[in-house]
Design a protein that fits this description.
seven-stranded parallel sheet, GIY-YIG endonuclease, alpha/beta, binds zinc ion, Primosomal protein N, Rossmann fold, globular, binds adenosine-5'-diphosphate, 744 residues, 5 domains
Length: 744
């Protein structure tokens, strides 16, 4: 008897073993999908991993129902990465399977090829003699006769043509074609067509020659050999042009390239820049793509003719690659490379490093504002540091002016969210035919709604957060669970009618701006305006073409975008970035403020940034103004070392979730107690996180701080065991326990 160990798309530890029924042995091979039973009546699409003949002892072994693939759908090298991820992130490998494979490959019949309707002669009319008879039959029906002769011309030696082509060429209606089908002369058949686009109709453009400084950096990248390179280049220094040269080299050498980006908004522009050079050799992979499209890319990467270049977001690191030569991690500092929820909570940068190791590929991490981790690696020699200190063509970095909004408010000089300085800067930019970007990291109309009388604030029923007002939809929305509520006319607590909104979100900034400049064309780019697949592309294209003058947005507008005509960037409220309760708040602040500033003055003239804040004396703001990464890094290091944070200590967060608060409370205390027995004072908590209830689940958090040199494999093993013990405890039924390794 043969047995097969497989992965199920469930968060359960380990592999499950099934027996292979007689007659199916040929078809059950590693990495094909299998239909398997589980429990009383469920079936799952499992992934075969290992075939053997060791009968499992002491458990009932069920039989595989069916094998679903003729060829493996996963490469052995991918499975190695999965195993590494499951181990490193302390999660079941089933979680990785769930995240990595497009849904269409996890369910039987989950994927359907897209088809086109074609037309051909029926069996009875395939010969020349029969076709002559057919022409005779329809002689009196002029339309049908004409369609039939056009059809004969069109197919020539081929079997058929698409129905669309026939109708277009013969100027015929569907009814005429149907008449010929009803007579039994013609018939339809379906032909699968790929969903993947071609190169977007771009002509092949020449690669731009590099400047002297860029050439020097490019040479240094190459000289680093197998050592990963941290390419730290100020915004607008032309990092992307260097990537293009490196990609060309790798493709010329017959290798594949993976280019990952943190933000879909960014892929639009980079995609266009790359497509002009590489055309159809490049595929795109991110979450706005339909599942069917993702299945097709996955399968293309497994075929004999894979894309040479894949441009994608985080999840692209999980695609099949046969011969990867180069990985580019653009905006490497960006927190959205880390997946938060659901599991696996992986960092695409770390997975990419593993992937590169497996393939012997070169890694280039590019950014103007390196993460503390990567810069530390560069200083320690683990990465090679390559720097570009000037903008392309020697353009100056933007001038950053600070406006103290606390002071302005006191003097009643603010116009809504705008200081007079920002209003004037926008006014002169617009009258000079220039464009403006306004950045605010809050979407919606207003972050707070409050009763003026009793102070009542509407909260989400399912989460521990106050609701955001959205004027466009006329609703209050919870940004944690997405639940919406109507805006109350009266306070439900004291029945007064003076319920007002406070503060600014992107919607309200847009409204105030239109009051100020009624003639100006404004676009907004945030989660709410970009829910459809092509929304980003449209907003960016309109702004690029000058159809809009001002672009307002959340972090989506802050990263990597390259518009030549933007002369002013307004940072509406820097405080909402700096005042987050997180040890990385200043790091994020430095990155975000520098990045968004870098959108100004990229083609000519010096850009101007108006940075509004109530706390102009916070050191990090001065560091941003002076573009002083080194001082920023040094001061942060002192803090991180003192409080045992990354990059010096490793962090693992433990989260416990349960519908009942007392359960999660007791379980949290027990979990932390067991952890302390092993890890002592490295364990902090349990604590209530700042948002302690989400989607009706109560949450506790335990923090584990690990010093360098600690035996990490042993730490992980202990954590797996402790979780097992807690999860098996009957008092904690339906408790969720998970780890967040290297949290962001
Ligand atoms: P970064 O990625 O470092 O922010 P980009 O690669 O976007 O910088 O370059 C900024 C601008 O300068 C872009 O519009 C780009 O096309 C232009 N540029 C950079 N290098 C060159 C070059 N060697 N030749 C022509 N244009 C360049
Ligand atoms: Zn009230
Ligand atoms: Zn909620």
């Amino acid at each position: 008897m043969k047995y097969v160990d497989c992965i199920l798309p469930l968060g359960v530890e380990g592999l499950l073993t099934y027996s292979v029924p007689e007659g199916m042995e040929q078809r059950v091979c590693p990495f094909v999908r299998l239909l398997v039973p589980l429990g009383k009546s469920k079936t799952y699409t499992a992934l075969a991993v290992r075939i053997h003949d060791e009968e499992p002892k002491g458990v009932e072994v069920k039989a595989v129902i069916d094998a679903l693939d003729e060829k493996p759908v996963l490469l052995p090298s991918q499975y190695d990465i999965w195993k590494w991820m499951a181990e490193y992130y302390i999660c079941p490998v089933g979680d990785i399977y769930r995240a990595a494979m497009p849904a269409g490959l996890k369910q039987e019949d989950g994927y359907r090829a897209k088809t086109e309707t074609w037309i051909r002669f029926t069996k009875s009319y395939q010969g020349a003699k029969e076709q002559a008879i057919a022409r005779e039959m329809v002689r009196r029906a002029a339309k049908q006769s004409q369609v039939l002769s056009v059809f004969a011309d069109l197919i020539g030696e081929n079997e058929g043509v698409t129905k669309e082509e026939l109708m277009n060429t013969a100027h015929a209606t569907s009814a005429v074609v149907k008449a010929l089908i009803d007579r039994g002369i013609l018939e339809t058949y379906e032909v699968p067509v790929g969903r993947l686009g071609t190169g977007g109709g771009c002509h092949m453009e020449r690669i731009k020659p590099l400047s002297e400084a860029q050439t020097k950096a490019y040479d240094e990248v190459n000289a680093a050999g197998a050592t990963p390179v941290l390419l730290q280049g100020v915004t607008g220094s032309g990092k992307t042009e260097i990537y293009i040269h490196l990609i060309r080299d790798a493709v010329k050498a017959g290798k594949q390239v993976l280019y990952i980006l943190p933000e879909i908004a960014l892929t639009v522009q980079i995609m266009q820049r790359l497509q002009c050079v590489f055309g159809d050799e490049m595929g795109i992979y991110h979450s706005k793509y339909s599942d069917a499209e993702r299945v097709e890319i996955w399968q293309k990467q497994l075929s004999d003719n894979p894309y040479k270049i894949i441009l994608g977001a985080r999840s692209a690191v999980l695609l099949p690659f046969t011969d990867l030569g180069l990985i580019i991690i653009d905006e490497e500092h960006d927190p959205s490379f880390k997946q938060q929820d659901p599991a696996p909570r992986y960092h695409a940068r770390s997975v990419a490093m593993m992937l590169a190791k497996k393939h012997g590929a070169k890694v280039v991490l590019g950014t103007a504002t390196p993460s503390m981790e990567s810069f530390n690696n560069a200083l320690s020699g683990k990465f090679r540091l390559v720097q570009l200190t000037e903008r392309y063509r020697g353009l100056q970095l933007p001038k950053i002016e600070i406006v103290n909004t606390a002071d302005m408010q006191r003097r009643k000089m603010m116009y809504g969210p705008f200081s007079p300085r920002l209003v004037n800067a926008m006014k002169s930019a617009i009258s000079d035919g220039k464009q403006v970007i306004l950045f605010l990291n809050r979407r919606g109309f207003a972050p707070i709604v409050e009763c003026r009388d009793c102070g009542w604030v509407p909260k989400c029923e399912n989460c521990d957060v106050s609701l955001t007002m959205h004027k466009t939809t006329g609703q209050l929305t919870c940004h944690y669970c997405g639940y919406t509520y109507t805006i109350p006319k009266k306070c439900p607590s004291c029945f007064c009618t003076d319920v007002r909104d406070h503060g600014y979100g992107t919607e309200k900034v847009e409204e105030k701006l239109m009051e100020l400049f009624p003639e100006v064309k404004v676009a907004r780019m945030d989660l709410d305006t970009t829910r459809t697949k092509n929304a980003h592309a449209r907003i960016i294209a309109d702004f690029s073409a000058g159809k809009t003058n001002v672009l307002i947005g959340t972090q989506m507008v802050s990263k990597g975008l390259d518009f030549g005509n933007v002369s002013v960037v307004g940072i509406v409220n820097a405080d909402s970035i700096l005042n987050t309760p997180d040890f990385r708040a200043y790091e994020r602040g430095f990155q975000m403020l520098s990045q968004v500033s870098g959108r100004a003055g990229r083609k000519e003239g010096q850009g101007l940034v108006i940075l509004q804040t109530k706390q102009p004396d916070v050191p990090v703001i001065g560091q941003v103004v002076r573009n002083d990464y080194r001082t920023f890094y040094k001061t942060q290091c002192e803090e991180r070392q003192m409080f045992k944070y990354p990059p010096f200590h490793r962090l693992i967060y433990v989260y416990l979730r349960h519908a009942k608060d007392p359960v999660v409370e007791t379980a949290g205390i027990e979990m932390a107690g067991r952890m302390r027995q092993v890890f002592g004072s490295r364990v902090l908590g349990p604590d209530r996180p700042s948002v302690a209830r989400v989607k009706s689940m109560n949450i506790r958090k335990i923090v584990l701080k690990l010093e360098p040199g600690i035996d990490l494999p042993r730490v992980r093993l202990c954590l797996r065991q402790i979780r097992q013990i807690i999860m098996q405890d009957k008092r904690y039924a339906s408790l969720q326990v998970y780890y967040d390794v290297d949290p962001q």
